[in-house]
């Protein structure tokens, strides 16, 4: 039995316009988010251990871009790229699979068994990142809305709409209500 | 340093088995012989009746004769056979820890390479129970051999190391030979006898990698301590274990003896060895398969 | 029956407890435990906090220190036992004789469980560990049939724990050095089987491949399910006595154990505790599998039928097996 059929893919009508998207502002926003995560979840980077200075290529295969999480610098950065840059490892899968792992709704090994998740290069670094993120119990939606400050509140209201439109797991579901 | 001949890991016919030990009795290079079935109890009836003759023969030739237990004792029948081993008045080599329950009070015994002796704590505990010799698990790195040989010296336990032959890597309740032939273990029809040195398991790109031998999995390469002899002597290792195989085993015994007694050097020894894939990675602290 | 659940991280431990685990097992982030994988396991502080969390909700925490201490370096293992006791662990799960002797001598009130890595498969072996070290529970190797487990329970006076879900070792546990033969590291020595550092995934001639320590262990079409890159689940070829080349999973097909349907039989066989494998899995796996098995255990105790499981999606190769519990497996 494969999970593949259950995983939503980003339709071309959404991903196509992304090809024209300027990447610099996206990279800036993602780096800001990463630094926020690093400050709020120090355990995440500590858990990476010997892999804490590596470059991770995250490849949502249904989007026309790849993301480089670069920890080789003391200030962690995420940059978006049209052509994948060199990295220690590549973690590739549909955006819904990647977000599902971050938000604790999907199991990385199960995605691997069904080949929805592909690991290349330094397998140990990729596993370390996956396990560290799983432990961090991240909620990207909350982090983004908090980062957005005054804009956050309308974003929060938009979230359920976005989720039902995209079928993406945009937030953590197994958390305690705060 | 002495040479110990380990138990035959494979399923040989009674005739082949008897011929092997008769030849061994006449070989002065060997001081110690471990006899008996270590892998599968279903093979025992095929040479059990020949055992007393071989014990006498080897004893008369001045060898220390030792009987091994099975590596994986599960059935009640296997348990009672193990208990009976200790009644024969010969030294027993334990290869499944559960056999310790049957050691009569105050009887010394030896421990084979299939018991997990990884550290001084375990070695000391076994010594307290009466262990006088331990053949270390083949996967131990060189540092561990150093520490255990030193601890063995203090405890009066001789430390032996796997010197030659396909490495025993795993044991299972499942018979791979039977499985390969689509049979159950109970209906195996002794198909493992077709491979008296084990059936080589190749990777899909054709590299010999492992070997199957009934419920046992071995290395395809032959472990060979030829290049580590000086190092093991310096560590205080008491004996090297040579594991029987069908081809050129007499030559291998002689080469190890000649090397230990300084009659040949490492280069000459390697040059004279049969042309086989070898491995000595474990003894150098690397992947076991490396050479 | 007690449900013993895996936790590779503090988040998984909390997920297990919330999903109904009676006990959770975990280990320190070093070579002392048999799931020494990148990014997993607990620091001393994390263990202390996790135990407080579990105890506040009525769940136990068992600490696995189940590798074989290194000669010349036993102190790391001795400290792990002492630290687990200090953190309030309900038991430690040990495999090595030397370490059991150490724990029995220096930590006499600490409850000892025998790890599956000790592969105690008959009453003589189990009796030895009970008699010599006061072991209170034995985790049985995954090589026994249900009938053999029942016979064993009649013959020994100790609690037994059996695996009911997750990864399946085809070899006797703790007695396998396939991994170190290919890579230099094994479950017994460093707590890893087929270490990720030695795994290389690739594409060769349009096929997906996995190499371990340079050895090709899997090659399949991209649409075939992927197994773990462990040697015993690898695909190889053997030439039989007729010179015929037989290709396939000669040791074990990739599949996960699922013994949910056998719970009534295991209960009748006198088993005390049911163990779920998977400290390397995510908290979503832990949550779903624990919840499913807790429902099954509760149903069993209330005399209701075991609910149909929904766990196939977590299984290796998408396939489930009852493993050695049914005799034809052998």
**Order of secondary-structure elements of chain C:** EHEHEHEHEHEHEEHHEEEEEEHEHE
Question: What percentage of amino acids of chain B are in beta strands?
Answer: 15-25%
> In which order are the strands of the major sheet of chain C placed?
1-2-3-4-5-6-7-15
CATH domain topology of the largest domain in chain C: TIM Barrel
The number of E-state strands of chain C comes to 16
Named CATH topology of chain B? TIM Barrel
What is the radius of gyration of chain B?
18 Å
CATH architecture of chain B: Alpha-Beta Barrel
Mean pLDDT of chain B: 95
Taking pLDDT < 50 over at least 5 consecutive residues as the criterion, the unreliable ranges of chain C are none
Tertiary shape of chain B: globular
Class by SSE composition of chain C: alpha/beta
Percent helix of chain B, as a range, is: 25-40%
How many angstroms does the end-to-end distance of chain B come to? 23 Å
Main β sheet profile of chain B: 8 strands, parallel, barrel
CATH superfamily of chain B: Aldolase class I
- The fourth-level CATH homologous superfamily of the largest domain in chain C is Aldolase class I
Secondary-structure map:
The complex is a heterotrimer of chains A (178), B (291) and C (330).
Chain A: H1 12-18, H2 23-40, H3 42-47, E1 55-60, E2 66-70, E3 77-81, E4 89-93, H4 95-102, H5 108-113, E5 118-121, H6 123-136, H7 140-147, H8 152-166
Parallel strand pairs in A: 1-4
Antiparallel strand pairs in A: 1-2, 2-3, 4-5
Helix pairs in contact in A: 7-8
Chain B: E1 2-5, H1 14-25, E2 32-35, H2 51-60, E3 64-68, H3 76-85, E4 91-94, E5 109-111, H4 120-129, E6 131-135, H5 142-155, E7 158-172, H6 176-180, E8 199-203, E9 208-213, E10 216-224, H7 229-235, E11 239-242, H8 249-260, H9 266-272, E12 278-279
Parallel strand pairs in B: 1-2, 1-11, 2-3, 3-4, 4-5, 5-6, 6-7, 7-11, 10-12
Antiparallel strand pairs in B: 7-10, 8-9, 9-10
Chain C: E1 2-6, H1 10-18, E2 23-26, H2 44-56, E3 60-65, H3 75-87, E4 91-94, H4 97-106, E5 112-114, H5 123-133, E6 137-139, H6 146-155, E7 159-166, E8 171-176, H7 178-183, H8 187-190, E9 199-204, E10 207-212, E11 215-220, E12 236-239, E13 245-248, E14 256-258, H9 263-268, E15 273-276, H10 283-301, E16 320-321
Parallel strand pairs in C: 1-2, 1-15, 2-3, 3-4, 4-5, 5-6, 6-7, 7-15, 14-16
Antiparallel strand pairs in C: 7-14, 9-10, 10-11, 12-13
Helix pairs in contact in C: 1-2, 1-10
């Amino acid at each position: 039995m494969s999970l593949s059929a259950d995983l939503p893919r980003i339709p071309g009508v959404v991903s196509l316009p992304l090809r024209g998207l300027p990447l610099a502002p996206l990279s800036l926003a993602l780096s800001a988010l990463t630094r926020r995560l690093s400050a709020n979840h120090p355990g995440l980077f500590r858990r990476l251990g010997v892999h804490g200075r590596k470059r991770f290529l995250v490849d949502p295969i249904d989007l026309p871009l790849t993301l480089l999480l670069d920890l080789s610098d003391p200030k962690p950065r995420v940059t978006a790229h049209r052509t994948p840059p060199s990295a220690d490892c590549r973690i590739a899968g549909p955006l819904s699979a990647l977000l599902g792992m971050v938000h604790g709704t999907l199991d990385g090994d199960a995605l691997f068994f069904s080949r929805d998740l592909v690991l290349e290069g330094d397998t140990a670094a990729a596993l370390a990142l996956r396990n560290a993120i799983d432990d961090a119990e991240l909620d990207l939606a909350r982090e983004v809305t908090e980062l957005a400050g005054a804009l956050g509140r309308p974003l929060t209201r938009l979230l359920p709409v976005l989720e039902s439109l995209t079928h993406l797991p945009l937030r953590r579901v197994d958390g305690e209500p705060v | 340093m002495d040479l110990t001949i380990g138990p035959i890991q494979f399923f040989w016919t009674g005739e082949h088995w008897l011929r092997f030990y008769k030849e061994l009795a006449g070989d002065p290079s060997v001081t110690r012989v471990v006899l008996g079935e270590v892998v599968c109890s279903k093979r025992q009836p095929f040479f059990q009746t020949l055992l007393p003759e071989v014990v006498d023969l080897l004893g008369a030739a001045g060898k220390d004769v030792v009987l091994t237990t099975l590596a994986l004792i599960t059935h009640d029948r296997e348990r009672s056979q193990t208990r009976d081993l200790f009644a024969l008045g010969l030294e027993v080599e334990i290869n499944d820890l559960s056999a310790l329950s049957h050691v009569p009070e105050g009887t010394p015994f030896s421990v084979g390479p299939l018991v997990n002796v990884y550290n001084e704590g375990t070695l000391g505990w076994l010594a307290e129970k009466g262990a006088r010799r331990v053949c270390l698990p083949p996967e131990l790195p060189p540092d561990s051999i150093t520490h255990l040989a030193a601890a063995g010296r203090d405890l009066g336990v001789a430390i032996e190391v796997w010197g030659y032959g396909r490495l025993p890597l795993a044991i299972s309740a499942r018979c791979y030979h039977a499985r390969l032939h689509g049979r159950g273990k109970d209906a195996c029809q002794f198909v493992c006898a077709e491979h008296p040195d084990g059936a080589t398991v190749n990777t899909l790109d054709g590299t010999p990698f492992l070997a199957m031998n009934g419920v046992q999995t071995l290395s395809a390469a032959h472990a060979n301590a030829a290049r580590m002899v000086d190092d093991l002597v310096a560590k205080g290792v008491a004996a090297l274990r040579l594991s029987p195989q069908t081809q050129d085993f007499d030559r291998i015994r002689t080469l190890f003896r000649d090397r230990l007694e300084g009659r040949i050097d490492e280069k000459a020894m390697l040059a004279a060895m049969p042309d086989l894939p070898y491995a000595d990675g474990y003894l150098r602290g690397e992947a076991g398969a490396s050479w | 029956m007690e449900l013993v659940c895996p936790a590779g991280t503090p988040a998984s431990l909390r997920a297990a407890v919330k999903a109904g685990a009676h006990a959770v097992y975990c280990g320190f982030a070093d070579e002392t435990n048999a799931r020494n994988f990148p990014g997993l396991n607990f620091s001393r502080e994390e263990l202390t906090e996790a135990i407080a969390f579990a105890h506040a909700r009525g769940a136990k925490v068992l600490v696995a220190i189940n590798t074989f201490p290194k000669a010349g370096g036993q102190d790391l293992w001795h400290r792990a036992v002492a630290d687990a006791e200090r953190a309030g662990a309900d038991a430690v799960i040990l495999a090595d004789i030397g370490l059991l002797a150490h724990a029995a001598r220096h930590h006499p009130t600490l409850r000892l469980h025998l790890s599956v890595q000790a592969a105690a498969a008959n009453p003589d072996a189990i009796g030895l560990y009970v008699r010599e070290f006061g072991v209170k529970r034995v985790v049985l190797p995954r090589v026994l049939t249900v009938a053999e487990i029942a016979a064993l329970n009649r013959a020994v006076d100790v609690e037994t724990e059996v695996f009911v879900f997750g990864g399946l070792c085809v070899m006797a546990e703790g007695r396998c050095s396939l991994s170190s033969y290919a890579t230099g590291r094994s479950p017994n020595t460093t707590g890893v089987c087929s270490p990720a550092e030695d795994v290389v995934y690739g594409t060769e001639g349009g096929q997906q491949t996995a190499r371990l320590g340079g050895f090709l262990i899997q090659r399949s079409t991209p649409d075939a399910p992927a197994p773990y890159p462990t040697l015993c689940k690898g695909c190889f070829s053997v030439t039989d006595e007729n010179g015929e080349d037989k290709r396939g999973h000669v040791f074990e097909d990739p599949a996960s154990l699922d013994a949910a349907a056998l719970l009534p039989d295991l209960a009748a066989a006198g088993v005390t505790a049911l163990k779920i494998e998977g400290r390397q899995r995510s908290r979503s796996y832990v949550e779903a599998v624990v919840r499913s098995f807790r429902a099954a255990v509760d149903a069993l105790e209330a005399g209701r039928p075991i609910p149909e499981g929904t766990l196939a999606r977590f299984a290796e190769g998408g396939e489930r097996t009852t493993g050695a519990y049914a005799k034809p497996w052998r």
